[in-house]
Amino acid sequence: MTKKKVYIISHSHWDREWYMQYEQHHMRLIQLMDDLLDLFKEDPDFNSFHLDGQTIAIDDYLEVRPERKEEVQQAITAGKLKIGPFYILQDDFLISSEANARNTLIGMEESKKWGDPVMLGYFPDTFGNMGQTPQMMQEAGIKAAAFGRGVKPTGFDNAVIHDEKYTSQFSEMWWEGPDNSKIFGLLFANWYSNGNEIPATKEEAIKFWDKKLAEAERYASTKHLLMMNGVDHQPVQKDVTAAIQLANELYPDYEFIHSNFDDYLTAVMADLPENLSTVNGELTSQETDGWYTLANTASARIYLKQKNTDVQRQLENIAEPLATMAYEVTNSYPHDTLRYAWKTLMQNHPHDSICGCSVDSVHREMMTRFEKAEEVGKFVAEEASQQLVEAIHTDNFPKDSVPFVLFNTSGHTLTRVVETKIEWKRLTFSEGHPPQLFHQLEKEAESLADFVVINEQGEEVLAEITGHDIQFDYDLPKDRFRIPYMALYINVRVPVTMPGMSWTTFALKEGNKQSVTQSVIITDTNAVQLENQLVKVEVAENGLITLTDKQRQKTYPQGLIFENVGDIGNEYIFKQPYEDQAIYAHQFNTQIEVITNTSLVGEVKITQEMMIPVSAEDLLEKEQQAVYEMRQRQAKRSQTLAPLTLTTILRVEKDNPQVMFTTHFNNQMKDHRLRVLFPTELKTEVHYVESIFEIVERPNQVNEKTWQNPTNPQHQHSFVNIHEKTHGMTVANYGLNEYEVLPENNTIALTLLRSVGELGDWGYFPTPEAQCLGEQTVRYAVELHGDESEDMSQSFIRAQQFQIPTTLVQTDCHIGSLAANHQFLKVDGDGYALTALKHAENGQDIVTRGFNLSQQKETQVTLSIPSYTAHEANMLEEFKEIPVQTTLPGAKIQTLRWTTSN
């Protein structure tokens, strides 16, 4: 009889920061690595240590112990220290598609600098797993993934449930993505600590192994059993080889070995049974009762998610595209600078970091990292855009005009009203005292002439002058000292429709404006109405709105409902108090004011003063201190009420189908949740949402037989959509990653704020800053669309563009080699979303990446860059030996590498 083999893998799951500050975890990592390097020398039977799949641990160690770099290299070369393939262990759902891709790309490159990475997609504690993992891993040459969450190996009482999407009868399974990519999936069914602290004495060892072997065999599909010798921040077990030797003596029917993932995966994948289950797409089923999906981390500390969106958009959609375009002028690309920015950003992407479920000090440090990465991105963008503008020919504009260049760095046609300021006159501090200069410009502003905006042909274009400002600023020349100045700025509003990855040049000059046709109309009768040629918005006296799709004569009533409820949960999980009733803003005093009414823009301010409880009652703090599990808490909301004033600016623009909202409030309340609701009244059982490299279809409601949680929160990126065959609604957002589809009227509920006071999980960790007290501003938009094909896809693209600002650079009249209007990259394909335009990590080839917006349907797409030739590549930017695909299957991710003969 063949013995069963027990593979014991030593590891430590290393959260860089969590229930202690980063440096507290950091110092313990130093101790762990010191112990490991010594143990490798002292115990020749110690096979290896798995360094948690993230190379950043090496950087963190050598930051303090640079003198041991050679020992680290020796350990990796000898196969004692197993590293990679990722840079950090990210949260899949809360970081962008490109951030997920860069984590693998940078992690693999960092790993290969040291040696051979472990070719295992390692997601031990990710809060659910993205559906495109199989395709992304295959694109990186990885054939297997290991994960601790997202799949139920069994149902209640260990009964195998065969009819559920997320069920596998074994800890081993196949995992198939939406594009039919398939990899081997390994579930840590008994968690990644099932072999932790193995006893080295007989009595304890028998008790330990009798239990652990039975648990592993319950789920294993082969005779190869995996024991993970470690857990969160676990010091290495120094006597593990002695404990293994004892186990071999006590259990002669088993062979216990100290091993590694390379050997284990080779063995288990060669011995898989034919009846292995296949799980599909997103793996998000955490527990059968629905409470511990941990999806509410998408709304913990929303300020983190908003700032993460700022930085991701700055790097992905502004800095990299502009730097790629500028290379045509400079023959230089800031590889190292962008790599530094990306690594700094990704240090905020581990699950306990970006999820907002750590102690306050962790998240304070995160904000500093965000700001560092963002400022680097801004520096790159400013340098690149200035280099481009200096090369753009503007000499055709009148000498008395001020040219300016607008860049659309999204991949698709953009229709937007751009609001900006143009410097009209500057007085440097060398010309007088600052107050004198300020007042001189003030006086000159009193006699300003009218202004117009013209194009390169000298033709007046539609624009509005909305005022002027006088401000201090400064220049930092590259060849001399800084130059401070006062300047007079003219505020300009310009509607543009620009192709993707392009620039357009205009100029501001003195002149008499021509009369224009009113494009946005506001009427103020019994109810205020805003409309353009595409959409009409009726604002009722109580602040609720009715949206009408004018092209299809479809109306969506009773939207913009602000809902407030109590929250006695924690950073991980929302829990509404028992018998708590929702409070709605439209039930309170509402004021409506028209604040902008021009030919291009209509804006209405809606002010609502809700009276809500100031916090939960005092019982909550006692229940938290006693570490009551949140479902057992009896605390209710306080009887003391105070005003929460919501100020919402509703905006309609010329030619733009999106209705945009900016809501501001000063949160001084605790233990509550604020959402905005948009009923759709559409008859469908599914909805669609942007996830990682896919527009995923999800059911509106859960299986009531197993789901006990009264809520069903979900993750999103730029939008959620509900549609029938001929019409639908897309709700876009900026850094608001949590939504829910409510059963009544298939209502889209977007979480704007969740205020809680503790970390949660395994103890009591107060987090007063998670109450998010103070000024808050959130942005979102609604678009009504038509049929399921092109029109809906375009609404998805516009939702993504809602997060991408235009870039404007002012210049002068000069001769240049670049045209005043130009498209750098052209994308032909309505069902395709571009996610990257950058240079290859190693070399000067251009890299683009994008994906098919549909999971089921093929889409036709052709990309073109003048003077460049496209080649298929993988996610590691390595060439594939296949022709360029112009027909992309459903959910296909395509990376292209572009070469030039120049």
From TrEMBL:
GO terms for biological process: mannose metabolic process; oligosaccharide catabolic process. Residues 297-370 form the Glycoside hydrolase family 38 central domain. The keyword Transcription does not apply. Gene3D superfamilies: 2.60.40.2210, 2.60.40.2220, Glycoside hydrolase 38, N terminal domain (3.20.110.10), Glycoside hydrolase family 38, central domain (1.20.1270.50), Golgi alpha-mannosidase II, domain 4 (2.70.98.30). Keywords: Glycosidase, Hydrolase, Metal-binding. The keyword Hydrolase applies. Coiled coil: none annotated. One of its GO terms (molecular function) is carbohydrate binding. It comes from the Bacteria. SUPFAM superfamilies: Families 57/38 glycoside transferase middle domain, Galactose mutarotase-like, Glycoside hydrolase/deacetylase. Belongs to the glycosyl hydrolase 38 family. This is Alpha-mannosidase. It comes from Vagococcus humatus.
